[in-house]
Write a structure and sequence with these properties.
CATH class: Alpha Beta
Order of helices and strands: HHHHHEEEEHEHEHEHHHHHEHEHEHEHE
CATH superfamily: Aldolase class I
CATH architecture: Alpha-Beta Barrel
Bound molecules: flavin mononucleotide
Strand order of the largest sheet: 4-11-10-9-8-7-6-5
Strand content: 5-15%
Radius of gyration: 23 Å
CATH topology: TIM Barrel
Mean pLDDT: 95
Number of domains: 1
Low-confidence stretches: none
Largest sheet: 8 strands, parallel
Helix content: 40-55%
Number of strands: 12
């Protein structure tokens, strides 16, 4: 038997030195923070520490028992990506077409209400980051920044406006007028919010309309003095797409003000009043998908609102193939709810989606580092998509087909 032996020697500095070089200290705190985040999950963990517990619950939570929210993630975790290894590509191209116009990737930023709660720069920062990334941004009816201010923050961006139809159609009409005047491209009509989902933690925290903050909620805020100082020293939080000082600006989110019975005729109503594309968001069945398209929708978004509305609602990723089959070629089919990585985006597109919307992922970035945090999240998603497409052997978005992804039973 051969004896394997290696010659011993005294350690020499010149051999060790290349491995012991300390990383240069990054003085910029935000950059240092973001450099430690190699995934959206990392960003999420850090975000949780940056905001008061009640704010965290509002953003990260779901409705009722959070079953739909958990199932959204579970579906993405069950995805198996299937490479064609002999045809791997070096530099895949993420660019695609969304609503007939070029986009840097099949991703749009979803509408989120009360965005400035997570970071005082709020919607402006998100819109600016989306513009820089070459992706559409959707401003919520319940935004904390006005339509005009968002247009100023991202003048060259693809800005979309999400419509919650108000009982008083004149109020919705005013939104449309302002969005048109500010060069917004598309409307996104959300149809899944006849009543606001029950988010138990928000209720216990006193995050309601009107707000009734509990002592515990206030104490939680006091533990985040930087967040409190930022909120108190910047413009007061309000529903800023509505006229300042109006009852809408104060109580905009109230079920009483919002239309509670949305019908296909409402899609047609919007179609007739808007020159650009109309997207219907919150579609959760094949029947509603067909009805939305028949009523004139240019795209539909399969969505259970990130598990924040009807608990146990269908999971968009699971519903996708049936809907694509039913309306294929007549409209773009998008999905959201649970997208946290570039691999998730690749899976959704492979299974037939034109694109995805992301909600919480960018909000977590915003909490960690304002506009730079959002950019970091969008960069992570793009890098992960690129790596996955390299290994899958799909040079372009159009090459992603159902043969590249399947949902495992477990
Ligand atoms: C904090 C928060 C606020 C939201 N507000 C709105 C809203 O005002 N209008 C709307 O259509 N959807 C709203 N949504 C739902 C998102 O547009 C999107 O459907 C959802 O976040 C997608 O799931 P994800 O967060 O897992 O990506 C909100 C979501 C969150 C997390």
């Amino acid at each position: 038997m051969t004896q394997l032996s290696s010659r011993r020697q005294v350690p020499r500095w010149r051999d060790l030195e290349p491995f012991l070089r300390p990383r240069p200290l990054e003085r910029d705190v935000v950059r240092r923070r973001l450099a430690r985040c190699l995934s959206v999950d990392d960003v999420e963990r850090l975000a949780r520490r940056r905001v008061p517990g009640a704010v965290w619950d509002y953003v990260a939570g779901g409705s009722d028992s959070e079953i739909a929210m958990r199932r959204n993630r579970d579906a993405f975790d069950r995805v198996e990506l299937r490479p064609t290894a002999f045809s791997q590509v070096a530099e895949p191209e993420l660019a695609t077409t969304l609503l007939g116009r070029p986009a840097a990737a099949p991703i749009a930023l979803a509408p989120t209400g009360y965005t400035r709660l997570g970071h005082h720069t709020g919607e402006r920062a998100v819109a600016a980051a989306a513009e820089r990334a070459g992706l559409p941004y959707t401003l919520s009816t319940y935004a904390t920044t006005s339509i005009t201010d968002v247009a100023r923050a991202a003048p060259g961006g693809r800005n979309w406006f999400q419509v919650y139809l108000m009982k008083d159609r004149a109020v919705t009409g005013a939104h449309l007028d302002e969005a048109r005047a500010q060069g917004f491209e598309a409307l996104v009509l959300t149809i899944d919010t006849t009543v606001t989902g029950m988010k138990r933690k928000d209720k216990l925290n006193g995050f309601a309309i009107p707000p009734q903050l509990t002592a515990r909620t206030m104490a939680g805020m006091a533990r985040h003095p930087r967040w409190v100082a930022d909120i108190l020293t910047t413009e007061p939080l309000s529903f800023a797409t509505f006229p300042a000082g109006s009852e809408y600006a104060r109580w905009g989110m109230s079920n009483q003000l919002r239309e509670q019975q949305i019908r296909p005729a409402d899609v047609t109503w919007l179609r007739e009043r808007w020159d650009g594309p109309v997207v219907v968001k919150g579609v959760q069945s094949v029947g509603d998908a067909v009805a939305a398209v028949d009523a004139g929708a240019d795209a539909i978004v399969l969505s259970n609102h990130g598990g924040r509305q009807l608990d146990r609602a269908p999971v968009p990723l699971e519903l996708l193939p049936q809907v694509v089959e039913a309306v294929s070629g007549r409209t773009e089919v998008w999905l959201d709810s649970g997208v946290r990585s570039g691999g998730d985006v690749v899976a959704a597109v492979a299974l037939g989606a034109t694109g995805v919307m992301v909600g919480r992922a960018y909000l977590y970035g915003l909490m960690v580092g304002g506009e730079r945090g959002v950019t970091h999240v969008l960069d992570l998603l793009a890098e992960e998509m690129r790596r996955a497409m390299c290994m899958l052997g799909t040079p372009t978005i159009a090459d992603l087909t159902p043969e590249h992804a399947r949902l495992r039973d477990r």
